[in-house]
Write a structure and sequence with these properties.
Largest sheet: none
CATH topology of the largest domain: Four Helix Bundle (Hemerythrin (Met), subunit A)
CATH architecture of the largest domain: Up-down Bundle
Structural class: mainly alpha
Number of helices: 12
CATH class of the largest domain: Mainly Alpha
Order of helices and strands: HHHHHHHHHHHH
């Protein structure tokens, strides 16, 4: 009976079913669609035919939603990237909430909830923009962190800044528990505004410069960007990042959390100078750009 079922299918039908089975498997494992790469994944014969029959049933039954056809669309890779981006945001939100509320010993902290709403509201809007307008940049931004860096110095810098970010959240939670700081509501609101402004600056950076990877590197087709915020300062992303990092302790109602923020700043400057060294050496035209745009972070100041 199994041989008849397999033999009864045309080569076209077997090919279509094979591609759709491959697509389903690749979506579940997080890889790019196997059919798009003309690779094949071979099931044991009984399981293979069982899934082929399932594919045929879904095609013939108008009542059952044909999920396989959705998976077989050419933008399958993009959907997979978007899914990973949203999942990363959810995981980050859970981790940051734990870093705030566990040290605080309570979830009754309106400053923390407001901060999370502002922080992830801006993150969601930014991610949605990249999904629609620059998915290649979104993919590059998702490859970050100490392990993604190639140079030992940058690994150390990213480890230090990541530790500082974690410490900022934990200290803010401890401050909530022990009441070290008495921060007026006006200062908390200013902190939230600084976060929004910092994210807004980064948004303009993303819109202007598709080469803003999360790691320090020069891509093959990279060129110097001298328009938009880059016409004012050389490193507008660092400026926006420092601004929202400064706003975080204030938004969380903790003056004490300014200490880990201050401890992270030298490492960010180290990264900035190291990036300039690499770009001057490997990116044609960057040295001339530095002569034209004198300021690194703040126009007229630095």
């Amino acid at each position: 009976m199994r041989k008849q079922t397999s033999a009864g299918m045309s080569k076209r039908a077997r090919c279509d079913a094979s591609i759709e089975v491959n697509l389903i498997f690749s979506m579940r494992t997080g890889d790019a669609p196997a059919g798009a790469r003309r690779n094949s994944f071979h099931f044991a014969q009984p399981s293979y035919e069982l899934i082929i029959n399932l594919v045929r049933t879904l095609r013939e039954d108008p009542v059952v939603p044909c999920i396989l056809r959705v998976f077989a669309r050419p933008d399958n890779v993009m959907n997979n990237l978007n899914l990973r981006a949203w999942l990363s945001l959810v995981v980050l939100a859970v981790i940051m909430a734990l870093l705030l509320f566990v040290p605080a010993g309570t979830t009754d902290d309106w400053q923390a909830w407001m901060f999370l709403l502002v922080f992830f509201g801006a993150s969601v809007l930014q991610t949605a923009y990249l999904m629609k307008h620059d998915p290649a940049l979104l993919q590059r931004r998702m490859r970050g962190g100490p392990l993604a860096e190639k140079e030992t110095a940058q690994k150390a810098i990213m480890f230090a800044t990541s530790s500082g970010f974690i410490a900022l959240l934990v200290v803010s939670g401890l401050d909530r528990r022990y009441g070290w700081s008495m921060v007026p509501i006006e200062v908390v609101i200013v902190g939230d505004i600084l976060i929004v402004v910092g994210y807004l600056i980064i948004f303009f950076v993303f819109r202007e410069n598709t080469f803003t990877a999360a790691t320090i590197e020069v891509m093959n087709d990279q060129r110097v960007i001298s328009t938009g915020p880059y016409a004012l300062v050389r490193h507008p992303m660092y400026a926006g990042g420092l601004l929202y990092l400064l706003g975080m302790p204030l938004a969380l109602g903790s003056y004490v959390a300014l200490i880990p923020f201050a401890a992270s700043v030298p490492f960010l400057f180290w990264r900035l100078f190291d990036e300039e060294r690499l770009l001057t050496k490997d990116l044609p035209g960057y040295a001339a750009y530095c002569e034209k745009v004198r300021w690194r972070l703040i126009p007229g100041v630095f």
